[in-house]
Fold this protein.
Amino acid sequence: MESRIKRVVLSALLSSLYLFSPLSFAQDDTDTSQKDNEELDKIITPDIERRRIKEDHLDSENFEIGVYSGTLSVEDFGTNTVAGVTIAYHITEDFFAEIDYGLTKTEETSYELLSGGVELLTDDQRDLSYYNASLGINFLPGQIYLWDRWAFNTNFYLIGGVGNTTFAEKKYFTYSYGGGMRFYTTDWLSIDFSLRDHSFEHELFGLPKKIHNIEGRFGLALFF
Amino acid sequence: MQILSKSAVVKIGVLLMHACLLLALPAKADNWLTNLFTDDILQVTVNDAFLNVYAAPGRGYPIFHVVERDEVITLIKSRTDWIKIKTKRNLVGWIKREDMKLTLSPNGEVPDFPELSQADYLEDRFEFGAAYGDFAGADGLSVNLGYRFTRNLAFEVRGAHNTGEFSDSEYLTGGIVFQPFPHWWVSPHLGIGAGRLKTFPSATLVNAEDREDSIMQASLGAYVHITGRLFLRTEVTNHYILTSRNTNEEVNEWKVGLNVLF
């Protein structure tokens, strides 16, 4: 018990040392030399600390996180709403790397509808999700003017990558490519219009079939 | 039931108090963590005839303003090779990062915005990459996240997702990467690692069951420096799969990908 009290008291003492020693030193400084410096500062540089500026002091904003929604046409399985998330890293002003993940639900094929009772897939198997790791290149930088008041920065981009699609409880290796336009409402919030093709090969109808799934999306992205 | 004894609670409390106080020490204020919470005003003085101010961070955007010699500008943030600034008249725009050489810090020195070369990415850096390749006939997609603690050694975690005709597989491994000549433009690297491999045979195969095995990896490859923080990375990996069956398996994988160091 006694040792515990000792420890608490000592710790409290130690903490008070942390608290007061550097501050009291700082206090001394302001009293004498800093006062003179302040006078000088007022003459030379009014309100800034005189030091060398380093890149580390500056906040960098090279990452982008976004959400999107749009329509994805899955060949033979209908066109449906798709929603997803993206994360991108801007390597240079020209190149960026992006990872996206999207989800949609597909419909019955024409054959299933016309034949009446045939069901190729169960309800759960109709869920489709995909992810891609892509590399994009920006081009055609420009501005859009709204009336005589606002100018917004824009750029177009081309993007291509590889990924996986999970459909009918199986994974398919997927190529994706497309392009889009970014519209910067401010420099940290952009609106993204994009058109992509996700292409993979499946054997759901017996024979291998290469399909192209076209997606149009509208997204919002934050830079941080 | 008492999970923590009273004295343990007191100890933890005191430790936490110390930690808070240490963070609050003025002498320690110059690190990135505390910088996150303070609004530093960073100002430089233009030390050239003029600097172009662009409307957005890209060389194709219009130059809508210039800042002249002796004008004080405030630095706001950076994106890729651009720096967002504010002028005395509250005009906001972007200047090229390389133009920081043409300015002066409040102490009269040129601001410290180093020319980053390949050598600057060799130590104390995180590395992230994605690669595409072939895993014993299957299409392989992999990502790696690493930390380079010396010029020659890095620790990394690798994950892969392979999609094949007869089976899909996933692995997650950890390992060490050794780079004997890190400063070479094309720099070879060796690696070893170990982890787990999950295999999911196609549903159409008879008597196929999902299985999970330990794997050991040995790899050989090369980094090729492209520009700034971006590297191309190629690799051939030999996977030794310790199966629960009578014989172990060997699988070869090759891949090529892009890695970013930051």
Summary: The radius of gyration of chain B is 26 Å. Chain B has two domains: 38-113, 120-261.
